[in-house]
Amino acid sequence: MKNCEYQQIDLLALPTATPTPAPLHGGDTVQRREPRKARRKWEVFPGKNRFYCGGRIIVARQSGVLPLTLGLILITSGLFFTFDCPFLVKHLTCCIPVIGGVLFVFVIITLLQTSFTDPGILPRATQDEAADIEKQIDSNGSTSYRPPPRTKEVLINQQVVKLKYCFTCKMFRPPRTSHCSLCDNCVERFDHHCPWVGNCVGKRNYRFFYTFIVSLSFLTAFIFGCVTTHLALRAQGGKGLVFALQESPGSAVELVICFFSVWSILGLSGFHTYLVASNLTTNEDIKGSWSGKGGEGVTNPYSHRNIIINCCSVLCAPMPPSLIDRRGFLPEDESAQTGCAEIELPTLATKSEMNVCTQGTKDLLESAALSPLLSTSCPQGKPHSADSSFTAKPNTSPELPPQRPKAHPTVKTSTPRRTKTQSRKCKRAALHVPTPVYEDPLTPSSPEAGPESKTH
Amino acid sequence: MATEFHNLQELRHSASLANKVFIQRDYSEGTTCRFQTKFPSELESRIEQTLFEDTVKTLNNYYAEAEKIGGQSYVEGCLACFTAYLIFLCMETRYEKVLKKIAKYIQEQNEKIYAPRGLLLTDPIERGMRVVEISIYEDRGSSGSSSGSSSVSGSTTR
Description:
heterodimer; A: 3-stranded antiparallel β-sheet; disordered C terminus; B: alpha+beta; 3-stranded antiparallel β-sheet; 39% helix; elongated; Golgin_A_7/ERF4 (chain B); Ras_palmitoyltransferase (chain B)
């Protein structure tokens, strides 16, 4: 290890990148002739996410039924504005398309924000952190190949809470954090994985999700009411419903869609309003974490005991930053080895721990700090879990960062497939644990039980 | 006593990383960002406890300020809601402003207090807000210093 440390420090002393001790596969020499292209961290992100617009947009790997959701909303609204609005404007008031338009815009914007926002993904632990935690755990003497699930108890507001160890992310999950196996990420304040929006719902996008379902329930109810009024007006004078439907066939489609969806969406909105008011997540509600079945005196330690304060803390709290630095650049020596990205990924990604986003002297020191310890893993292409302790820049905006002084021209042709393939291959190559078994309480594909299970 | 470095440049040139200490999160008050102020034993020989505790407490205060729910955050939240949260695309959020202050503070602490003692603080945002990582350096020039041991006290001589 000592040799490795000094070796790494020598590397750092050199201004240019030097070959790493890790074996490089064929094809790499070909790539070296290409000009060096700085790579961004989203390209080596280990979770099962896809990135677009150069890392600005993040979605789950499976988009679920997001196209269906969008399609239904667009079709229903389109039919509404085409068939019902003209009639209603003539016979009632011109406010109707205005209100409908506002609601429609709200729904679409919040839906897209829910789908494309980082839900609060926790970057995986760095190697050093993971080693430190292992040291603390092993000091308790577990030597089996597959250690039992590790838990740690903390006291939160006089309530005992168990923190579970995540084998994929190599860290003890903070309270209210859960690992989504569909996205393969730990997500803070994990609510559920919503296939309708094609993303997890967590700390950072819960307010978008809530606004989406509330405005969607208003929109659905509004369209339903307007269509009913429209058909009623057409059918009056003894003409009958069939005549009205023949005159305005689009309304029939809207009626069917709205009738079947308004109940589930209203139910979902009501359920989430209850969750917001009690500062609970869907995950906790389903598991019954705080419902008292664990014994008497078990209450929600996160609740402020006041509905207004709970609502404000969930919906009006300051927007937390994204902890995965998607658009940050990988360090220069990593970017140079972009050739055999799939194969080299373990090495590359290990080095991705090296902080690129510090400034001034801190920059240099960080590089000095991190490389020596990374070198201990370099010969074997270290566990993939160390790959993506992506560091967020302090000055990185959570989404769409418009101001980035050294941003390269946006790579519009982002390669989400490659990211996916890379992360899959990397995972297979480097994971010690063959099949991560998560004590993941919530099966993401059936995110919610209860009244809204129909909806999801 | 630990090796002294006069500035960060000297640290870079003559130091090798010996160990890292991780200050974990303190969840006793919920999920708000706070770090434990317990003084790690590895730092006992490197830095005074009061300095360390001051640093962590100041960081905790910064994070509390960033996450404070009060009048201003309500106004911002409601305004954001009315604009369908589009203002998040245009404006720098309060949290980001405080994160910049924190970065500056950490850099200043490193320059004034930690680097001269052969230590280096890492901004928690770079570790997913999970830990405050403190890197402990040894003077590369001093031979026989242990490179991988967890205890660094006594490894270098003045």
